[in-house]
Amino acid sequence: MDDALWFAIGESVLKIIAILIITGLLIRIGKIAIRNFFKVRTRGPLRITERREATLMKLLENVLTYVVYFIAIMMILSALTINVQAMLAGAGIVGLAVGFGAQSLVKDIITGFFIIFEDQFSVGDYVRIGQFEGTVEEIGLRTTKIKSFTGEIHILPNGSIVEVTNFSLFNSVAVLDIGIAYEGDLEYAEKVLQEYLETTTEKYPELVKTPELLGVQQFGASEVVLRIVAESLPMKHWYMGRQLRKDIKRVLDEHGVEIPFPRMVMYSRQEGGEQKEFGK
Amino acid sequence: MDDALWFAIGESVLKIIAILIITGLLIRIGKIAIRNFFKVRTRGPLRITERREATLMKLLENVLTYVVYFIAIMMILSALTINVQAMLAGAGIVGLAVGFGAQSLVKDIITGFFIIFEDQFSVGDYVRIGQFEGTVEEIGLRTTKIKSFTGEIHILPNGSIVEVTNFSLFNSVAVLDIGIAYEGDLEYAEKVLQEYLETTTEKYPELVKTPELLGVQQFGASEVVLRIVAESLPMKHWYMGRQLRKDIKRVLDEHGVEIPFPRMVMYSRQEGGEQKEFGK
Amino acid sequence: MDDALWFAIGESVLKIIAILIITGLLIRIGKIAIRNFFKVRTRGPLRITERREATLMKLLENVLTYVVYFIAIMMILSALTINVQAMLAGAGIVGLAVGFGAQSLVKDIITGFFIIFEDQFSVGDYVRIGQFEGTVEEIGLRTTKIKSFTGEIHILPNGSIVEVTNFSLFNSVAVLDIGIAYEGDLEYAEKVLQEYLETTTEKYPELVKTPELLGVQQFGASEVVLRIVAESLPMKHWYMGRQLRKDIKRVLDEHGVEIPFPRMVMYSRQEGGEQKEFGK
Amino acid sequence: MDDALWFAIGESVLKIIAILIITGLLIRIGKIAIRNFFKVRTRGPLRITERREATLMKLLENVLTYVVYFIAIMMILSALTINVQAMLAGAGIVGLAVGFGAQSLVKDIITGFFIIFEDQFSVGDYVRIGQFEGTVEEIGLRTTKIKSFTGEIHILPNGSIVEVTNFSLFNSVAVLDIGIAYEGDLEYAEKVLQEYLETTTEKYPELVKTPELLGVQQFGASEVVLRIVAESLPMKHWYMGRQLRKDIKRVLDEHGVEIPFPRMVMYSRQEGGEQKEFGK
Amino acid sequence: MDDALWFAIGESVLKIIAILIITGLLIRIGKIAIRNFFKVRTRGPLRITERREATLMKLLENVLTYVVYFIAIMMILSALTINVQAMLAGAGIVGLAVGFGAQSLVKDIITGFFIIFEDQFSVGDYVRIGQFEGTVEEIGLRTTKIKSFTGEIHILPNGSIVEVTNFSLFNSVAVLDIGIAYEGDLEYAEKVLQEYLETTTEKYPELVKTPELLGVQQFGASEVVLRIVAESLPMKHWYMGRQLRKDIKRVLDEHGVEIPFPRMVMYSRQEGGEQKEFGK
Amino acid sequence: MDDALWFAIGESVLKIIAILIITGLLIRIGKIAIRNFFKVRTRGPLRITERREATLMKLLENVLTYVVYFIAIMMILSALTINVQAMLAGAGIVGLAVGFGAQSLVKDIITGFFIIFEDQFSVGDYVRIGQFEGTVEEIGLRTTKIKSFTGEIHILPNGSIVEVTNFSLFNSVAVLDIGIAYEGDLEYAEKVLQEYLETTTEKYPELVKTPELLGVQQFGASEVVLRIVAESLPMKHWYMGRQLRKDIKRVLDEHGVEIPFPRMVMYSRQEGGEQKEFGK
Amino acid sequence: MDDALWFAIGESVLKIIAILIITGLLIRIGKIAIRNFFKVRTRGPLRITERREATLMKLLENVLTYVVYFIAIMMILSALTINVQAMLAGAGIVGLAVGFGAQSLVKDIITGFFIIFEDQFSVGDYVRIGQFEGTVEEIGLRTTKIKSFTGEIHILPNGSIVEVTNFSLFNSVAVLDIGIAYEGDLEYAEKVLQEYLETTTEKYPELVKTPELLGVQQFGASEVVLRIVAESLPMKHWYMGRQLRKDIKRVLDEHGVEIPFPRMVMYSRQEGGEQKEFGK
């Protein structure tokens, strides 16, 4: 290690500091520019769907950050590698590292690009991706953030997003399964439910049309299961399900229709008793 | 960074804007052309099955978009790479990125091509793919969209579609398992059900032929399980299952055939009592 | 983009249209030829097993389609690539795409070839492949179609077919587990069942030989489980199982042999009562 | 497409037909030769274990078929490729296809080779491979066929065979778990069982030695579980298990040892009654 | 092995010892410098969010250690390989080893870099990664340490971190499901709960707003399930859930609203009795 | 195909037969030599642990077989390839096949080598590997054979052996969970058990030390669960568990300590009765 | 095979024997040296944490063995390959084999290196790795041995160790869930438990601080579940859990607080009776 080496180290340290300061400034200026552009745009003629606007702004900031940092890191690395190469004979390892790093990074970015390009989901949509479910908080080039209804944030690298389920594009459907006692009059119960259902659309604006009483979905162990489906506004099916359940409970109570408990027929037998045993 | 660099940057920015405007125009014109072509065609002599027409139109628009955007991106990249290469020594990374991106994109497109070419499913079919089930909303070159009956949209990259189950090509079959009490007369129950089933085809046009009473499918813990299969029009088996279940409940009630609750035989024993214990 | 380019584009569009028309004609003529050949053949001396004939005809049509389309696409691509290469510098991407496409296609075709060459299953066989089960509807070079008994079509790329279970090659065996009460006379029950079983072969021609009463398969919680196996003609085991179950129910009823319900011994205890508690 | 091309096509069609006819003849002659060789051999001095003879004959036929067909296909391909190459510039795809095909084929064949070379199982053995279980029907170079006891044939490519469980090499052991009532005399029950077990070897020649009463395997919820193990001839453990279970039921009945039903201690409590509630 | 070899070995041993001593000193000095820098910094103007400060300090120490050790090992290896190469002809194995080592190391480091760069979580956050859950103890370049609430430390290589769930960024929501008896007055129960919930915000400062009584979430087998959601400060939802549950129990008791036990309707039947059996 | 080809075929057939005969002789002689060597060795001074001797002998025979067969096959292949190459242009396929075969073979052999070199288990040890459990029957270079206690042989390629659990190296521990009634005196039950446990070591030589009564492991639904651990000689824990369970049953019976049945508190309620319903 | 070959074989056999003897001696001498070094060291000034000393000694011996054997095998191979190459033309297979062997070996060693370098766990720590749990018995360069509390040894190749859970670094926490009857006074029960818990720290030195009564964790089907957490010394949480459970049982009994059995409300109904059926 001679003087030239130490000098080279000093020079690159200075370079790196300069790069870092410029990087910081560029990002701040860029973000302000993006925000202003969107403010101005909303008055302009080139309007796009409002739903994508939030997505695009977040994304542009994101792209800006990555591009600036990427160029900065490349510059820092090129400033460093002179020394690294000076010290190590087998410098191919650095190249290998960057190659592998680029691989997963590139996969994330390309998937992210298609998610946005094909408008699979936007910020604010309610989606399910793999085992994670929630409202999209942010779509980045490399990661997507989803906020579950209990408050936690799921951070998914885009490369791990394969199949997406989007709940916000179409009307949602609430599915209610109501158990009715076997010994009761099925048609009377259906009539009671049907009459009630026809009154719901005026009561609940979240309902798109009159809920449908589909019929006998299943013969349960202790009850006949009737299914009701209620098409409601997107993501209002949980709310509507709860409202309808509460009303149906009241309506069935008023008309004396029983929601049965589990049942069992019990045979009492005397042990070793006079029970006729076959073959004896 | 000298002037030539700044000039090159300015030039490519202009190029990119021009490319973007032309791209947008091409796509709008193309889509109108495709729609008109299909409108005209329906009167022409070269008719193909109507079921595939919707698929083809959606697809052509899709192909148009991808091809135009692909060429545009290539042009933008070629406009950009001059500068990127000017700034970075190791520009092989960009090539690597495009290579990896093309890989998954190509896999999606080729699978998508075969799905359409082999007519595995069309827009409007009810399909199951992996764990997702619903009506096909759109078949694209890269992704397929399926709408589940509860309203959510599943977006599947074609490359992740392996085994497809299509419910819309043939008649569907409703399967009903009816539990009959052990202590009842099995043959009487079968006669009652058989008589009823023979009246169903005239009542329900969705039935393709008289439902079949297959026989004793299983000895359950508390009941003898009879199986009925009813061939119905495609995707009408859920509806028919519900109708038949309702009718069967009524018919069995009328003839006094019991659908049994879970049963248990209970031996009451006195603890520490005079129960004869073996070996004592 | 000069005139030569536009001219080249025009030329290839014409070529492509010509290719498409010839392709369509060739396929229609080929299919008619194949069908006639098979009609003639059935009278000729070179007969092969009838079971494979349907498979072969479907397959030949399939091969014809693929080969003709493959050549057509190659010609179209070669007509196109001149222009593509003229526009893009890095045209290696197209080669990459074809390479990857060929990979999965080749894997499907080779597996398909072995399925037919080794006669693993023919059209009409009942098979289970992975989680899919049903009658083989069509064996293609790239995909196999299976129709489940409830009417849906499963479309499997041959490359995803690994282990195949074929139910149609040998006789099937119906397995019946009959629960007998613990307190009854086991030997009497076995005698009753044995006597009945010996009468079955003349009643049911689907039975290959007298069903066997294997013996006590298991000590259940509430019953002694007897197992009966009945060898029947291929795929008739479900039918025979139902018939035998119905008969056995009748025979056991007639001889007073009980099929027991779940049982439980219940000790009633007074809480906080005079129950002798240990150690106190 | 000039005349030379059409002529070349005609020539190769003729070649292919000739190859096909010769192939067919070779296989028939070869199979007869193999069968005669084995018939002669059985009288010769070079005897090998009979268990492997069936395996070897099936295998030799199998090898013959593959080798002859392989050479035939190679010849056909070499006859074809002249034309294919004449038509297509990028003929590397055909080579790629053969390469990929050879890969999985080779993997299957090598695994198959080791299965036979190491004598992991022979035709007629009862084996479990992955989730499939049954008697080995045929060991081929590429696939192995297993026949389950209910009659279906499982066809496994050898490359998917990793861990093999062979039941036919050693004696099998039947394991019986007998539940005895908690309140009974455990030692008396053990004495009764032990006395019975000592009489079994003379009654059942399938037993290799007197079954062993291991002791209290588990404290169940309602019973003390005693375990008996009975070493029997290979694959006779299911038969012996059923025989022993039937006898043990009879012996326990004769000595008044109870096999208990599920039990439960029930406390009846008056609701809102004078039950002393803590802290009040 | 001649003298030169032994001399070379001696020389490299000396080199290695020198390298190890210098390495040790560098790391100690570096760590002290980092800590002082952070102490000074807290008074300076360049403040960053406090939450990231702990992360950054741990990380810088971590980077220092890796870089110094990496250079040291490279130097040791370069000192060693002379001899290794002198002894072995095929020295490519050493290169292979380093290559593979670098691969997984690089993957860990790159993922680690993005976790910190994108601020996915900081030291002190409560996160779930795969099946592991707990408070982040340390974020290193290669591994992340998570401390579960029961005290064990989970050590995860960063390369195995894909999807991250962070509970500390937003308010948490406690979800309470309360079962109410079917036969009771649902609206009365809702009124009681609602009145109580409105008093909670002043009692518990951890609550962000008044908990919401959503409504009838489900018709259970024995109870109507009401759902309450309570938004609370981050990670206070477990505490709030317990407090609310205790209070609700007391409030329901005071107002006589029953939380029901499992229920069953029991039909007692006489065996073989005069029960009207159908069809007889 | 000219005469030289036929001559070459004849020549190689002769060569192959010669190779096969020599191979067979070499293996027989080699095996006898190995056995004699081990017989002599047992009297010699170079003794190694007896546990590894059986392993080594089996292994040496195994190595001998593989090496001799490997050389034989190589010779046969080299005798064959002349002709194969003469017939086929693209002979690279044979090389590919050998390459792939060598890959999995090499992986198996290397893992097998480390299993023996690190003495992970020897012939006779009781091990669990993946889902297979039993006594090691044979450790080969390519496969390991494990015999389960019910008599079947599991044949595992060494390459599929990753994590090994060896039960024969250290003492085994029997774990007994004893349920005691809630209403009984826990300390009395512990005293009874403790007194009994102190008498066990003299009764059972398989016990290494007095079994320990750890304490209350769990509050079960109907019982307090006490845990006892008994360190015993390797693989004697199943035997000791059974013995201790039998004794403990007797001891608890003698002291009147109850092992409780499942319990349930039953509230009888009059339906629609005067039960005070809240809110009404 | 001429004389030179036989001579070469003889020469290499002699070489190999010499190598083996020297190898054996080197290892024995090396191990003694390592042990003495550690004995001396404990008195010297360069002390490191005692916890890592055992790890380091085991490891050094391990490294010694591998390095010496590796050099020996390389020498043996180089002695052998002369002959192997003389016999086989395609000797590349040997190189391939070594390459593949090195791959998995290198992966194991690198992971092992990081486990020790980052001090993830030491000999004697209680860890969970994947599905295996126990005390670390030995950390080698290639494998890690874990001894479970029931006595078996798990042998894990380091390459299969990904996520590690270490229980020995921090205090452990015992978690106790106590069920309290719904009808009892919750606050009284909490007071009783709280009073008891405050007396525990002086009784049990293993407790780090007074156990905390967190509150109502859950509304169970038949009980209110209270949760107690008790921070204790590392790995003492199982012991403390058992002690606390025993004490709590006694304390609750003394204060008359009931730990409830499963409960059920039973409605007795007369079948076909005068039960008011709805709709009739």
Features:
homoheptamer, 280 residues, alpha+beta, 5-stranded antiparallel sheet, 3-stranded antiparallel sheet, elongated, Mechanosensitive ion channel family protein (chains A, B, C, D, E, F, G), YbiO_bact (chains A, B, C, D, E, F, G), mechanosensitive monoatomic ion channel activity (chains A, B, C, D, E, F, G), transmembrane helix (chains A, B, C, D, E, F, G)
Report on this model:
The structure is a homoheptamer of 280-residue chains. By secondary structure, chain A is an alpha+beta fold. Helices cover 49% and strands 21% of the residues of chain A. Chain A has helices at residues 3-41, 50-87, 92-117, 186-197, 200-203, 237-254, and strands spanning 126-129, 132-139, 143-147, 153-157, 164-166, 172-181, 212-219, 223-232, 263-269. In chain A, the strands form two sheets. In chain A, strands 4-3-2-1-5 form a five-stranded antiparallel β-sheet. Chain A has a three-stranded antiparallel β-sheet with strand order 6-8-7. In chain A, a hairpin with a 3-residue loop joins strand 7 and strand 8. Chain A is elongated. Chain A binds chain G through residues 181, 183-185, 187-189, 255-258, 261, 265, and chain G through 267, 271, 275-280.
